[in-house]
């Protein structure tokens, strides 16, 4: 795009205003500044606008634009006159402009802070939310240029435009004069305007994913003429799954007389298909994808699943090819899953979409599954299939998305969809990277209040092809922030499935109190120990002995569930041998009956498989099957646990039959597909083997007993208890999230004065660590007092500083290698007079060198207390983060720091102080005096307000903060400033830039 060349233009073309946005109907559009070379586009756009819309815009018949109009609407200075256009396919579909005006309504320049704004939207695109998106972006541009208020004049009959303004959520004023409605509104974001923006974002992004997951018609492009190949396989998977929409096979190499492939209509091009195509599955080599995208865009295809590899995962050339793919697709308003994707699945009865490389559909259920890696995705589908049965029904998948390189559609988009998807109760996500952690935590916090979100996040460097912002935060810190947002953070995909099945099957526990009962004392004690290790509060295990009958289990479970001192029950069971031994089906039915009687508490089963011992005992009793025979119900491999099988069968009297959606993938095919989709197939296979779960063939489970509640069974106590502990923590988070706290207001905060000081300091350079005096002044604007530290380059200067401050004083060396290192002896405390001060000065000089190396300072003594550290940092990916810990070894050596996302509420501050492992030192540990934690919490809240109000403050460190029995003292402070980012997560809606 060319840079404006008009002599009156005062600014270069602002490319950072360009953005791709998702519209209300799920399509995309590009918003960009209007430039001088857009004259023809503007004229063409105007010709397609109806006379009525033109009348509403100009308040009179205005059939065409004059040359003067075209020049005016394409020549801007990008300060006082700005125009933006929304484009699809490179053509304008809507425009908006503002003109700065003075108090009398005439054109003006800064410092005038008001502008007139006007919109025009093509009739064919009205109702898609284009004007609302343009308003968000033009408002952000105006704020960047110093405009604080918009004015708009609208005809009373133009209800659509009046609604755009009134629904935006800004503080506004309305008047009526001379037959025109005049609207004036401030551009400062309000809680309501941000809520409106977030709600629109959620609806739009959810709709864009829904169009991919529930298409009315699908075209598979790249279907081979002979059986085999990726395209032909996907076509077969769609057909065999019973896809309910229209299905088409496309290959430009098809002969003209070929009408069908495997019973599916065949076409040489998408253009040849009569009627709309909602989704195209692209299974052609990467070099042919651009032509396919063009044909799809021109035919009006809404979304693409690109299976082809050879993109960013293959190196720099592939990375550029991937960027071009995204730009090309967005030109036509299409969204992309992939490239290098495994595919998508929707098990809903009215869709039955298997647009993936999975040979058969997984069992339908209530779990939404997202995986960036195709190999991990197939492993998760396999595990859910194998372990999805229960005492009273099955747990399967509602929808599945494997995003590959996630060049466009990401986990954030799918999370927006699952938030209000009535078919999904639990969300499981495997994330190799998080492209926008700040947005992810915001979405996760909202989703977590409605349904559980379980995440396993790969550590280390993101895979090639994943465009992410570099974060400076340690992996553990990011994980801690995710947990605060309600994310159930686990470490392996085994734990992901374990937790997901419990949350999908059982109610949330009301607390950490656990009852343990079973027929094995040892297994009960092992479960008890694991509960203690996970922070739960178990009661002593109830040993029913190995002679316990199914009725004994039922009565014991019923008593435990009705006990008010119990929040959850873990049942341990081992196989029994001998006359009168309880049958597996009988025991499963007993547990189900007891659980149904008291449905408000979760029940888990820990069972131990003793297949090898059982076989040995059988052989000893001469009852073993002939050599080479396999036991009933097995496939020649490891025998499944009898109790687990009974729990998963549900109805023991129903004959085993294959459910219509059972997955029976061929092992070799799955391994080949996994290797093609991603390079981590080897790691997945190793992890799967470690968990004793093979990728395939998927288990063939009998049809379930139709009932709403299921009891999950686990082969090891530690797995069951870990899943229960995560459910307990999530339940606690849900209860706390119902009362999230508030950000307090403090009357002594001078936000305007701080802004002026920051502006003056930033005029010195792009980014700087400000001096001690300036840092004290800035912090003082927010009610944070820092003890003065006066430089003491000579003994006499130290004496004069002490007289100024008043005795007793402290003498400190502030050289970088000695700063905050009292353990090295660079600090002398409680110096009561000049003699002690001079003696201490000489000692430090003898130990560490001359004053110019020591950089000594004198500071008035503060009341004794606990030394702490408070930090705030603006991370490019996670946003503003507030951290707290004890000063010294606890935080520096042991990493004992707690973190919260800014803005911090009063509840957050309270939890932050109590979250570190060394927190007992603040509350009277071993008879010491408890310190003033309310004062500490207030300090945390003030620092949070400072960095939240002023994005230019990119780092604050207060160290040490000495918290005494009454009050606290900030003895050291450093502040770093930098220009604020042009856009952030609080700005207008945008898709990641390419």
From TrEMBL:
Q: Which UniProt keywords are present, listed alphabetically?
A: Acyltransferase, Transferase
Question: Is Repeat one of the keywords UniProt gives this record?
Answer: no
Chain residue ranges for the region called Disordered: 623-662
- Biased composition (Basic and acidic residues) is annotated at 648-657
Per UniProt, the enzyme's principal EC class comes to transferase
For this protein, the Enzyme Commission number is: 2.3.1.-
List each copy of the N-acetyltransferase domain by range: 29-188
Q: Does the keyword Ubl conjugation apply?
A: no
Name one molecular function that GO assigns to this entry.
acyltransferase activity, transferring groups other than amino-acyl groups
**In this record, what's one Pfam family?**
Acetyltransf_1
Bias kind Low complexity: ranges: 623-642
**UniProt signal peptide:** none
Listed SUPFAM superfamilies: Acyl-CoA N-acyltransferases (Nat), Glutathione synthetase ATP-binding domain-like, NAD(P)-binding Rossmann-fold domains, Succinyl-CoA synthetase domains
Its name, as the record gives it, is GNAT family N-acetyltransferase
Annotated organism of origin: Streptomyces sp. R39
Organism lineage string: Bacteria, Bacillati, Actinomycetota, Actinomycetes, Kitasatosporales
